[in-house]
Amino acid sequence: MIKKENGQSLVEFALVLPVLLILIFGIVDFGRYFHAYLTVDHAGREAARAASIGTADAVSVAVQNGSGIGLTADQVSFTSSGGEATITIVYPITFLTPVIGSMVGSLTVEDTTIMRIE
Known about the structure:
By secondary structure, the chain is α+β, with helices and mostly antiparallel strands. The chain has one domain. It has three helices and three strands; from the N terminus they run H-H-E-E-H-E. The chain has a three-stranded antiparallel sheet with strand order 1-2-3, with helices on one face. Strand 1 and strand 2 form a beta hairpin. Helix 1 runs antiparallel to helix 2.
C-alpha cells in the first residue's frame, strides 16, 4: 500500500525558505556594502583631486560625489600639511537583514586619500 505524500513538498519548501531568504538578503546587503565602498572611494579621490589643484572646497566635493549614499560633511575630514592634501571619509553601513546585522554587527567603510598639492 502506497502512502499519500500530498504535503511533502510544502513541508520541504517551509524548511528551505528561511535559508533561501537569508541568502537573498545577504546578497543584497553585500551589494549595498560594495556600492558604498565604491562611492566612498570615488568621493575621496575626487575631493583630494579638487583639494590638490585648489579649485573647490574638498569637503563639499566629497559630499557632492557621495550623494548617492547620503554622505554628509560630518563624515568627511580634510587636512593639508607638508604639501599634501588628505581626505578621510568614514561611512557607517546598516544592514537591511536583521539576522545578518546581528551576526556581523556594525560596519564602517573608511577611505583615506592623499594627493600632493600642486
